[in-house]
Amino acid sequence: MEIFEKVESQVRSYCRTWPTVFTTAKGSEITDENGKTYLDFFAGAGTLNYGHNNPEIKGKLLEYLAEDNVIHTLDMHSTAKADFLKTFKEVILEPRGMDYKMMFPGPAGNNAVEAALKLARKVTGRETIVSFTNGFHGMTLGALAVTGNSMKRGGAGVPLNNVATMPFDKYMDGQTPDFLWLKTLLEDPGSGLDKPAAVIVETVQGEGGINVASAEWLRGLQELCREHEMLLIIDDIQMGCGRTGSFFSFEEAGIKPDIITLSKSLSGIGMPLAVTLCRPELDVFEPGEHNGTFRGFAPAFITATAALDAYWRDNTFAKSITAHASWLDEQLHKIIDDFPELKLSTRGRGLARGLVFDNPDLAGETTTELFERGLLMETAGAEDEVVKFLPPLTTTIDEFEKGLGILREALSAVSTKHVKVLAKV
Prior knowledge:
Distance between the termini: 41 Å
Organism: Salininema proteolyticum
Strand order of the largest sheet: 4-12-11-10-7-5-6
CATH class of the largest domain: Alpha Beta
Family: Belongs to the class-III pyridoxal-phosphate-dependent aminotransferase family.
CATH superfamily of the largest domain: Type I PLP-dependent aspartate aminotransferase-like (Major domain)
CATH topology of the largest domain: Aspartate Aminotransferase, domain 2
Number of helices: 14
Keywords: Aminotransferase, Pyridoxal phosphate, Transferase
Strand content: 15-25%
EC number: 2.6.1.76
Helix content: 25-40%
């Protein structure tokens, strides 16, 4: 551990929550250098939807590397890219009646968001972007400007401008707003709101605390965008690739975004890959107008294609996600009933679930207890009041039951230490 303290920047964070050195991983488990194995309900913040070292995906990668195939090609053509584009079109876009052009903006989700914002401004000739309370879209300046978290925004060091923040669904005392406020601002020449280029939104806010937008709210947002000629950007970086059940998280709402951002689990195995999808008529960048060195990592194309082939050729995998999600929701409600003193609640969609604590401090203590007992989970929300479930989508019921058993032990320890003691005073 000494080398990390001496050489690595203080900005590191996850290693402070889980102070050990990890070495190997498979499926829903990860092992440290002491031989202790942990259940992983964090999954690389949603990057490992198909588990660690998925054998079907890894096998294709090893074959590709063994044959001295190209690894780095900037945006030159390659067979790896061609296969990915063909498979994505055939397996994802065409069955859903979707027609999008695909841009490779760089290796990470924030690159996809930056490209989306830049494209929206170029297409419309406007500057303002509408974002939402508790939204999270990345840590680079453009993405950070449309992010709500004050601590993260504070690190920018410069003003984060050209953004108008509006209330997310159920932000106002649990109510679903009807967009009358935003509609009034857009239509009133005295409101001071410049006509926006676009709206950017997550259908489920992951870092914001597993806040779920209703299908009705999303459809209303799309209607407002169409009425006022604003582009609708769906940030599906954490909630896409099956996290909510369907491949895209917005499918349930029946909406058709103008621009979609994808990353995290897109590569299937944890390698960097991000894309920005846009309607063909929005594909207006000049050649090289937006580029980067690592915007087409060939090995990630191979693993992404393998993931699509293995899990999305039919609806079997999607059905299993939905079934496991329903079961997990039932179990979490039982846990809430068994620990009334902790004042818990739950929310989420698919296998993005949150256990919400009335006292935020107890959420952090719970994740510490979980780590000590062999389960990795993180907190989320404006006050870190939510213990967040982002397990691999391939997690078995046996593994879920083991993890929930650990969760019960951790909650019991927290309750004994705080709530029950205070009740006696």
